[in-house]
TrEMBL record:
GO terms for cellular component: plasma membrane. It is a multi-pass membrane protein. The keyword Ubl conjugation does not apply. It comes from mine drainage metagenome. This is Putative inner membrane protein.
């Protein structure tokens, strides 16, 4: 297939997957920050179990693709030999704090935009700009010099997936071992999710977890298999239609930056719509469609200048943290974790800790004021 046609195919798939994601996320109120909040503040595990279900489905499905030869995990941003532990921790903590102050992560921001939330439009702009300057601007210089420096990174002799650390066990091939580990962890998560009667009966949570997990798997298949082709300029085999030129799946921070960049350099023919950019549009469109179908579309604005201030600070922290940690609650929390990357697990834990601590502080402040 011609490279330009292949890129368009990947982009259309990204738009489609993003649209389904946004529709389902709006319908089921799938929200990773909400999941953390429910557990920390009320002890309710419903939405957290939906998130965990998505992780389990994505983990098993992704590694089944690897086993069948449809995906090479070494060609992703998550599994390299460099282990920048400080970036994972610092970025994850910043993102966790930011998504709490901004009332939702990158995914929820896009879903709310589709539902008419003007606060989320402001969050989107500040989050995207912060992500862009963390990728290529002044914050990027800080990130590279202090958070990705050799002194705070561990250079491994192999990739950072769990199978790479456990290679040789039982004489299994790397692909078989990777799938076995994914199935064991995934099954343990599924047992935890469905041992609760309410979880078994929650149609929305189960629908969200299943569909979003499968969307992540679909993203890996589209970019990692369908998108693998010959670069017409270099004549080398590469991954077409992605910003990283590697296999990608659902993630919403760096793609937000690339979306703003695309708008800013619209007339530059070297700037194109990619899989990630298409998913950004798709999530908003899918959420909008659900809101219009159910007549739940509502214009919403900030309640006060202070509310706006907190959202702007939160958005900025999300943009910086998401790029630094190489993903958000979806990009690392589901997509990255599906590769069994140790960095993804560390980033996810840091995000949850950052969000939980911020929620506790907010609750203490509110209690003291009352």
């Amino acid at each position: 297939m011609d490279a330009s046609v292949l890129v368009k195919t990947i982009v259309w798939w990204g738009l489609g997957l993003g649209t389904v994601f946004g529709f389902i996320a709006n319908k089921t109120n799938f929200c990773t920050m909400g999941a953390v909040s429910d557990v920390v503040n009320m002890g309710h595990w419903g939405r957290m179990r939906a998130w965990l279900l998505a992780i389990a489905v994505a983990m098993i499905g992704t590694n089944l693709l690897v086993y069948l030869g449809y995906l090479d995990l070494s060609k992703t941003i998550y599994t390299g030999n460099s282990f920048p532990w400080l970036a994972y921790i610092a970025g994850g903590l910043c993102f966790g704090v930011g998504m709490t102050l901004a009332s939702g992560c990158g995914n929820k921001t896009l879903v709310r935009i589709g539902g008419g939330n003007l606060r989320s439009v402001v969050v989107f702009i500040f989050m995207g700009f912060a992500a862009l300057v963390t990728l290529r601007g002044i914050l990027g210089a800080f990130r590279v010099k202090f958070l990705l420096a050799p002194a705070v990174s561990i250079q491994l002799d192999h990739g950072q997936t769990l199978s790479a650390f456990l290679s040789g066990i039982g004489g299994l091939s790397p692909e078989t071992l990777q799938l076995a580990i994914a199935c064991v962890i995934g099954l343990a998560i599924l047992i935890f999710v469905f041992k609760d009667k309410k979880s078994r009966q929650s149609t929305d949570n189960n629908l969200a977890g299943l569909i979003i997990g499968l969307i992540v798997v679909g993203g890996w298949f589209v970019t990692g298999h369908l998108g693998f082709g010959e670069n017409p300029d270099t004549l080398e085999m590469t991954y077409l239609g992605t910003n990283s030129h590697l296999a990608e799946s659902m993630s919403f921070i760096a793609p937000t930056a690339y979306t703003l960049e695309y708008w800013a350099y619209w007339t530059d023919i070297s700037t194109i719509v990619t899989f990630g950019v298409a998913t950004i549009f798709g999530v908003g469109i899918g959420s909008f469609l659900y809101a219009m179908i159910t007549k739940s579309f509502r214009w919403e604005a900030f309640s006060s200048p202070q509310d706006m201030f907190y959202h702007i600070i939160g958005a900025t922290l999300m943009g910086f943290g998401g790029v630094t940690a190489m993903g958000c609650t979806i990009g690392q929390g589901i997509t990255g974790v599906s590769t069994l990357s140790l960095g993804s697990f560390l980033a996810l834990i840091s995000i949850v800790i950052g969000s939980s601590i911020t929620m506790k502080i907010q609750y203490a402040i509110i209690s003291r004021e009352n």
